[in-house]
Write a structure and sequence with these properties.
This protein has 189 residues and is α/β, with parallel strands linked by helices. The protein has a 6-stranded mixed beta sheet, sandwiched between helices. A 3-stranded mixed beta sheet has the order 2-4-5, covered by helices on one side. A hairpin with a 2-residue loop joins strand 10 and strand 11. The longest helix is centred in the first third of the chain and has 13 residues.
């Protein structure tokens, strides 16, 4: 596996596992991952939330960990990166209002570089208008946004992932093994 430089765009109340697990997993196999958040600098942290599936009609939410950012958003040049990771949680809900974030997301699609988005990360993809004619999975509550973005929603099991071109998506953190395995394949091409 060749080592890549990966950008992770995240923010306060990102889903804990969907941020920490891919960050650590990608680093553990030799990739460089820069985690950034608008209006924050390297060394600052974001709050995370733990979303759990406990038999209710939707996930439950608990306070997660503090996640330390290792790069400054304002210093990022997307052309320096080989791939993009978009964790889920509540962060994509407000990150999609940031025009700089949307421009960064669009860059990875116009250059056909690998993108991995999970759970509510599809909200950011829909807002960036990069889903048209694609297949995209997400947390089921995001299905209307995926379809309004003119994509086909992949209604797959919570532990599955789907790849469409340069994009790998999954419903939630139980899909990490499948989601990361498919992303590793994109990174190797």
């Amino acid at each position: 596996m060749s080592h890549k430089k990966i950008l992770m765009i995240t923010g306060d109340f990102t889903e804990d596992y969907e941020t920490m697990v891919p960050f650590q997993a990608l680093i553990s196999v030799g990739h460089t991952v820069h985690a950034v958040c608008p209006d924050k600098k390297a060394g600052e942290s974001i709050a995370t939330a733990i979303h759990d599936f406990e038999g209710d009609q939707t996930y439950t939410e608990k306070v997660g960990h503090r996640f330390a950012l290792n790069a400054s958003f304002n210093d990022i040049n997307v052309e320096d990166y080989d791939a993009l990771v978009i964790p889920g949680g509540r962060a994509p809900e407000y990150l999609r209002l940031n025009t700089d974030v949307l421009a960064m997301v669009k860059y990875f699609f116009t250059t056909n570089k690998p993108v991995a988005a999970i759970c509510h990360g599809a909200q950011l993809l829909a807002a960036a208008q990069v889903l048209e004619n694609r297949i995209c999975s997400a947390y089921p509550a995001c299905q209307p946004e995926v379809e309004l973005a003119k994509a086909t929603f992949a209604a797959i099991a919570v532990d599955e992932a789907v790849t469409d071109g340069n994009l790998v998506t999954a419903p939630a953190w139980p899909a990490h093994p499948a989601w990361l395995a498919q992303f590793y394949l994109l990174l190797d091409n």
